[in-house]
Amino acid sequence: MKKMLITGASGYLGSVLVKHFSSKYKLIKLSYKNKIKGHLIIDLTDEEQVSKFAKSCNPDYILHAAGKKAKFCEENPEISLVNFHSSELITKYFPSALTYYISSDFVFDGFKGNFKETDTPNPSTIYGITKLKGEKSFNLKKHCIIRTSGLFDTNEKGFMNYVISQLSQGKKVEAFTNIYNTPTYLPYFCNYLEAMIRLNLTGLFHVCGNEKVSRFEFSKLIAKIFGYDRNLIVGKMAPKSFLSPIDSSLDNSKIRGLLNLNWPNLKTALEDMYKNSLNNTKV
Ligand SMILES: NC(=O)c1ccc[n+]([C@@H]2O[C@H](COP(=O)([O-])OP(=O)(O)OC[C@H]3O[C@@H](n4cnc5c(N)ncnc54)[C@H](OP(=O)(O)O)[C@@H]3O)[C@@H](O)[C@H]2O)c1
């Protein structure tokens, strides 16, 4: 069995990757502050720790999902260096592993939307700047950068969770009408990533949902599929200070053209998620 190192294994994305790949690869799971049984604790910004660890471990693949989120980066710019310093250390100390670096739609300024891999990044947030800097560590002939956008599934603690929690209590949801992205259902993301790894794909790819929606439109769709009152969704404009590009939607046609793998639409994704949430409550 090939060896796969997952960074950020205690995080939202990392924990889903661990579940998805645990039967397919021999996993080495790295976390940082969260102490989880079976995970190794390493600060990926500490060169001594990374170099020492690299001597004991020779993975075939690295899924690099450690990082800091947008709000944290804005409030703690000095600590947000994990988004790029970790990438520099990984390429330096694991030169023979094929690394998949999870990057973000926030590398774009968000003025035009439907960004392709050929569009020039121009980040407007500290998070976006640090993610782009992280990308620069990777030689695209040897490694792979995956930009994604608005990951969601039943365990999500962000926007999706807020919408469902409010609606289920009959409370209103305030959702921005002018902030757009391409929401990405995690099970589909994992299937794509698995297919990419099977092909040892290197290069730059946008791996995300097919449809660009505003947060308002997305909330309406969630309410519809989950059977909640759609009138509880109230549209409003994001303030200028809002920490997100206006339209960071990504175009996924490059990877969809390469893989012979269906990526169902947002409605189907939400229906699947709803079905899973019913099954989980029955257990
Ligand atoms: N969530 C999304 O919608 C989304 C969209 C686009 C791109 N991404 C990218 O996907 C990646 C994962 O996002 P996420 O939502 O899963 O974030 P998350 O839940 O905040 O998880 C971040 C992970 O990084 C680890 N980490 C933080 N600082 C570290 C350090 N100094 N050394 C080692 N590990 C460290 C954390 O470990 P501890 O918790 O143990 O401290 C945690 O496991 C990020 O790089 C993000 O840019 C996410």
Task: Give the name of the CATH superfamily of one domain.
Answer: NAD(P)-binding Rossmann-like Domain
Beta percentage is: 15-25%
Determine the CATH topology of one domain.
Answer: Rossmann fold
User: How are strands sequenced across the largest beta sheet?
Assistant: 3-2-1-4-5-6-11
Assign an overall shape.
globular
- Low-confidence segments, given as residue ranges, are none
Corresponding CATH architecture of one domain: 3-Layer(aba) Sandwich
Mean pLDDT: 95
Q: First CA to last CA: what distance?
A: 32 Å
Characterize the structure shown.
The protein is α/β, with parallel strands linked by helices and 283 residues long. It has a domain at 3-156 and 183-211 and 249-263: NAD(P)-binding Rossmann-like Domain (Rossmann fold, 3-Layer(aba) Sandwich). It has ten helices and 13 strands. Strand 5, helix 5 (126-135) and strand 6 (144-148) form a beta-alpha-beta unit. It is globular. Bound molecules: NADP nicotinamide-adenine-dinucleotide phosphate (NAP). NADP nicotinamide-adenine-dinucleotide phosphate (NAP) binds at residues 8, 10-14, 31-34, 42-45, 65-69, 82, 102, 104, 131, 148-151. NADP nicotinamide-adenine-dinucleotide phosphate binds at residues 8, 10-14, 31-34, 42-45, 65-69, 82, 102, 104, 131, 148-151.
